[in-house]
């Protein structure tokens, strides 16, 4: 099985590279935006001719949520047009596409974990561009969408690493307590993706799925646990979203229901605290 991974230098791309060591039957090829501009149809076509994949996993995305408010064109190019370009080539060559999306397609006004079939209503340009990418790719065909939330890892820029950095520099940190979701260790998502890729005939379903770790927390809870597990003495102070204004509006509640993908993979999904311990052990050793 020949697998092309786009966005190879991002958190998820790097996690797939690490976890793929346990999936020896797969032949993985990694490409990033510098080598393959997936916003360009010609570049996508050239990459498909070079790597001749059986399946493509699109990990590339414009993820700067606040910057997207001012860089709408860039966000839509990478989050909407690029997955459409990939899907078009996949359909032409009968290749399957796994496209990664986000919990930010929801408006956060619910209070029970979101199902794949629940109404979408993104509040930000980032969320709107990601939803457009889902819609375009799925309308073209051969596309499986996996929405995830609050992605972090030992690689790249993310909330965990920011809290560790500032926790070592400052005596206290102010973190919002009224936005609720679930952190997702990129490595756990990578393993789920690789399992689907390894058994494509059985597990690839051209529908929307949700994947995050288990459990529910606020950003405050997550920060508190990071500081505690890292053995730091930094004080974490809970604040409201109104006390920490940002350019983009985030959903207040974006917990994802994972039952559909759990049933598909016939596997349990780790709790976010359990995965945080694993990630910190890797990052701090």
* Mass-distribution shape: globular
Q: Which radius of gyration do the C-alpha atoms yield?
A: 18 Å
- Beta strand %: 15-25%
CATH topology name? Rossmann fold
Helical run tally:
10
Ends distance: 34 Å
**Oligomer state of the chains in this structure:** single chain
List keywords for this structure.
285 residues, alpha/beta, Rossmann fold, six-stranded parallel beta sheet, two-stranded parallel sheet, 10 helices, 12 strands, 17% strand, globular
What does this structure look like?
The structure is a single chain. The chain is built from 10 helices and 12 strands. With 285 residues, the protein is of the alpha/beta class. The protein has one domain (2-154, 183-214, 254-270): NAD(P)-binding Rossmann-like Domain (Rossmann fold, 3-Layer(aba) Sandwich). Strand 1, helix 1 (11-19) and strand 2 form a beta-alpha-beta unit. It is globular. The model has no long low-confidence stretch (mean pLDDT 97).
Short description, anyone?
The chain has one domain (2-154, 183-214, 254-270): Rossmann fold (3-Layer(aba) Sandwich). The protein contains ten helices and twelve strands.
List the helices and strands and how they pair.
Blueprint lengths: L1 E5 L4 H9 L7 E5 L9 H11 L3 E4 L13 H22 L2 E7 L22 H16 L2 E6 L2 E2 L6 H11 L2 E5 L3 E2 L2 E2 H13 L1 H4 L4 E3 L6 E2 H12 L4 E5 L19 H7 L6 H13 L1
Parallel strand pairs: 1-2, 1-3, 3-4, 4-5, 5-10, 6-9, 7-12
Antiparallel strand pairs: 8-11
Helix pairs in contact: 1-6, 2-3, 3-4, 5-8, 8-10
């Amino acid at each position: 099985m020949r697998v092309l991974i786009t966005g190879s230098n991002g958190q998820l791309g790097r996690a797939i590279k690490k976890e793929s060591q346990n999936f020896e039957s797969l032949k993985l090829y990694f490409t990033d935006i510098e080598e393959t501009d997936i916003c360009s149809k010609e570049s996508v076509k050239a990459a498909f001719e070079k790597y001749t994949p059986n399946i493509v996993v699109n990990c590339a995305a414009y993820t700067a949520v606040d910057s997207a408010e001012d860089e709408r064109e860039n966000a839509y190019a990478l989050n909407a047009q690029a997955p459409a370009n990939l899907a078009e080539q996949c359909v032409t060559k009968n290749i399957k596409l796994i496209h990664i999306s986000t919990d930010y397609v929801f408006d956060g006004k619910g209070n029970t974990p979101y199902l794949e079939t629940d109404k979408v209503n993104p509040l930000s340009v980032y969320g709107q561009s990601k939803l457009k990418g889902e819609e375009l790719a799925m309308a073209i065909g051969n596309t499986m969408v996996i929405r995830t939330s609050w992605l972090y890892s030992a690689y790249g820029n993310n909330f965990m690493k920011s809290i560790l950095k500032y926790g070592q520099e400052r005596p206290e940190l102010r973190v919002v307590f009224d936005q609720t979701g679930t952190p997702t260790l990129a490595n756990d998502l990578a393993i789920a993706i690789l399992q689907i890729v390894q058994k494509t005939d059985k597990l690839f379903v051209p529908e929307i799925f949700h994947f995050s770790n288990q459990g529910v927390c606020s950003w405050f809870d997550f920060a508190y646990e990071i500081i505690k597990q890292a053995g730091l003495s930094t004080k974490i102070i809970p604040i409201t979203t109104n006390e920490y204004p940002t350019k983009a509006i985030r959903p207040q509640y974006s917990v994802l229901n994972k039952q559909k993908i759990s049933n598909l993979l016939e596997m349990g999904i780790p709790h976010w605290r359990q995965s945080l311990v694993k990630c910190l052990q890797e990052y701090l050793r």
